[in-house]
Amino acid sequence: MDLSARDRALLDFERTWWQQPGPKGSRIRAELGYSPTRYYDRLATLLDEPAAFVYDPLTVMRLRRLRDQRRRARFEGNTADPRSR
């Protein structure tokens, strides 16, 4: 299944948001028309879609890795942080 234009725009934004001035939350609203909550919900869903990986594998892999690190930290405590070993 192909990604919609909005989903591609969301991944493009996530890849480059830090290069632009201003807070991320207000830029999400201005550029994408999403509330920050809706943005992060949709982004989390996109990480598990194969079409998102095909479109932008580096961004998807980076976000999956961060998600996995946060999950491990919640369940295992500080030992989930590779720098603490």
What's this entry about, in short?
The chain has 85 residues and is an all-alpha fold.
The succession of helices and strands, N to C, reads HHHHH
The Rg value, from CA coordinates, equals 14 Å
Total number of helical segments? 5
User: How helix-rich are the residues, as a percent range?
Assistant: 55-70%
Helix/strand/pairing class, anyone? mainly alpha
Tell me the overall shape. globular
How much strand content do the residues show? under 5%
Q: Give the terminus-to-terminus CA distance.
A: 41 Å
Summarize the structure in words.
This protein is mostly helical and 85 residues long. The chain has helices spanning 5-16, 24-32, 36-46, 50-55, 57-76. The model has no long low-confidence stretch (mean pLDDT 88).
Q: Secondary-structure blueprint of this entry?
A:
Elements: H1 5-16, H2 24-32, H3 36-46, H4 50-55, H5 57-76
